[in-house]
Amino acid sequence: MIIQTMKEGAGLVVTVSGRMDAVTAPEYEQKFEEMLSNGETDFVIDFEKLEYISSAGLRALLSTSKKIRNKNGKIHLANVCGNVREVFDISGFTGIFQVHGSVAEALAVIAG
């Protein structure tokens, strides 16, 4: 898994590539701990290049979203497609998270 970040206006865009599973989920959570401790609170997570997500990846996503919300932050997902979208639909995550068709759409919502 590769995690890249880029500050865009009011939010931080976090691009996740590869696989998010039991092996890589702890890295994902650690990265978010670092970003939160650096004062970031509003996130757009871009899943366009994410090829696979397991239940461990879903748990990591839930865990980090709770930490973000506890800091009065916002979390929006963008470009959830293919197999990853199927997993989100089946697990009900599309009802839990705000899912947008693009990073630009998600950033516009954060900017309010």
Question: Any overview of this molecule?
Answer:
- With about 110 residues, this protein is of the alpha/beta class.
- It has helices spanning about 25-35, 55-70, 80-90, 95, 105-110; strands spanning about 1-10, 10-20, 40-45, 50-55, 75-80, 100.
- Strands 1, 2, 3, 4, 5 and 6 form a six-stranded mixed β-sheet that branches.
- A hairpin with a 2-residue loop joins strand 1 (about 1-10) and strand 2 (about 10-20).
- The radius of gyration is 13 Å and the shape is globular.
- The relative contact order is 0.20.
* Number of H/I helices: 5
Tally of distinct domains: 1
Helix content: 40-55%
Distance between the termini: 31 Å
Rg from Cα:
13 Å
Assign the structural class, choosing from mainly alpha, mainly beta, alpha/beta, alpha+beta, or little secondary structure: alpha/beta
Question: Architecture, CATH level 2?
Answer: 2-Layer Sandwich
Low-confidence stretches: none
Major β-sheet annotation: 6 strands, mixed
CATH class: Alpha Beta
Order of helices and strands: EEHEEHEHHEH
Strand content: 25-35%
Number of strand elements: 6
Calculate the mean pLDDT score and round it.
Answer: 94
Q: What is the CATH superfamily label? A: STAS domain
